[in-house]
Amino acid sequence: MIHRILLLAAALAGTAACDADTPPPASPAAPADVEPLQARLDRAEQFFLRPERIRDSLSGQVWLSDDRFVHWPGVGPNRGTFEIVDPQARTVAPLLARAELSAQLAGVTVPEDYLQFALAPDSTRLVFRIADKTFALGLDDRRVVALAADDVAAHVLAPDTVLAPDRRAFLVRRGHGFAVLAADGRALVERDGEPEAAWKLPRTAWSPDSRHLAVWNRDARAVHKVPIVDYTTALEEVKQVPYVKTGTPLVRAELHLVEPATGRVVTAALPGDESYDWLAGWRPDGSEALVLRLARDGKRLDLLAVAPATGDVRLLVREEQPDSFVADVGFDEGGWQQQVVPLTDGLLWISERDGWRHVYRYDYSGELEGQLTRGSFPVHQVLAVTPERDALLVLASAEPDAPYDRLVYRVPIAGGALTRLSGDAGMHRPSVSPSGRYSIDGHSARTRPRAWDVIAVDSGAAFRYAEADASAVIALGYQSPEAIVTTAADGVTRLHGTLFKPVDFDPRRRYAVIDLIYAGPFISVVPWTYVGTSESRIAEGLAQMGFVVMVLDARGTPGRGKAFQDATYGRFGQIEIPDHLAALDQAAATRPYMDLQRLGIYGHSWGGYFALRAMLTAPDRFVAGYAGAPGDLTEDALCNEPNLGLLAANPAAYAAGSNLPLAGNLRGALKLMHGTSDDQAPISTTMRMADALIRADRRFELLIMPGTGHNPEPRRYYYDDVRRFFADKLGPPR
Known about the structure:
The protein is of the alpha+beta class. The strands form ten sheets. Strands 35-36-38-37-39-40-41-42 form an eight-stranded mixed sheet, with helices on both faces. The chain has a four-stranded antiparallel sheet with strand order 1-2-3-4, with no helix packed on it. Strands 5-6-7-8 form a four-stranded antiparallel sheet, with no helix packed on it. The chain is globular and about 70 Å long.
């Protein structure tokens, strides 16, 4: 059977996609000066791995009580040991010399680039792990000691451990259940769980006074199951994985409030309708837990207050968008963490009710007290309230000529104009100290590697303590992609994108073009930092095969205001490809090296859906397409329902966005890829598309990767397959 599968795969790989009545196009002949295919594949892989060549300080920072912090530098003279930064004195020094750290570790190899570490519960030591060994380093005596495997301090390194604010207890995972441990390791509360009724331990579990904590029990027993078949053994094994498809039951979440001192546990009296739920935090006095609750169709977001002693629930804030959505899958991917900021005398709330993300203030009775920020720009996050409590620090895109830059601003808490604190343009990712007096800011731009600054919140004075080293990237011959600004298919809306070119680019030649697409309303993919995005990494590799590659954020993507994102609401799949074609035509109009007669498209996941969409809705434009693990409107409910409405309420939109009825439109070369163990975009999507193409008598290629998930492994095999496909179908520069 294995040999038959290989023979079938080989036969499919050798079959050019074509219209049923049209002979397959001959592969373009390679000019004599074109590099061998393997050399191009190797260089493509080098550029895909470009971010790994950058030395940077990515291990995070641990703040100390005196506003100093410790980090693990990936660059500079102290690389390979702990470094302590004093923002007030503006100094950087090793906590102990690298040679001394190595000596105390007695032969254990010290990593240079990255080390996982955290502050011990007693706040006097750093706990870190190298390979399978755990150590503690005293902040005062600078001594390193090995910790026993069961040492309670080692819990701080576990990803699911949540330390109480008073640092006297831990919330830890135990299988599918949880336990609350005292500082001496005694279990104060324990609960078992089941695989389909497991406990989720939120990072915001503990009340500020450490008296209570909140945990979720997530019951997936009624959820649709996707069969994942293990084909690597002769006796196949099947695992059933819960997966919420459009129109099927959601996971049921129960919030349990725990009082560790007494062992008392109560269940919050949350409403019984289907929803998505997150623990947003607590009131600063610990009197109520704050829960965000998104309606299944995304049109209503509630902020609920839960009394920890009784589980009683009351509504604080309700946000509604009857004709669109308040939040979608991007909210679940982290956006909920920026939604609400509890204060002692009220809370800050993010809303797009005026068309842009802005900050509003409510009291704890649920009364609106005012709008604090205004303007035609989005506020992405409230970073902190200043120590004097007279202003907010916010992360916003408030520069008219740079709508995707994310910069730090100061705004009066009474409302008013923003004052820019970030000196450099680009993307800033700040982290404010516990005291609120300083902020760590790692920032980068498309043409500038990351720099690390400490900023004084009161004055805005910045102190640079580290910079990334990109010399190995420069040695590759890397050039940042070219920025493009075009107009959408509506003839009005400005779109931003980038063009990637091969390192040996010659503007006198003609290059086939690949549109690397994602286009879902969940993320933007155009790179605005030096490292870039997942899509830009793939684009860099593809460009080295001898192509010009475009990455674009069309209408419907986030970050540009409600109207920009709502352009695709209720009509998913209708305007994205026209926007991409409009951008390609405008870019090529002034770049004669772009050969749009040899136009390809590649995408993975939702990008796979849109690669298919392009091949089937614009068959006269795209001559080759590769769709990896394509999504579908019948798949993940949180991806689809908030952007289209519920299936029962808007069946026409689901029908209009389906690729299956369009299978007969295929004219160009198409390849599909899917992993058999994909539990994010199940393989049934590709099987149904393959069936539709076969029934329409359309030829296509298919790569099945046994045992691999949504992100295929071996990764290079997959990406080399993408690169080979386009090299064969589109040909080299002319």
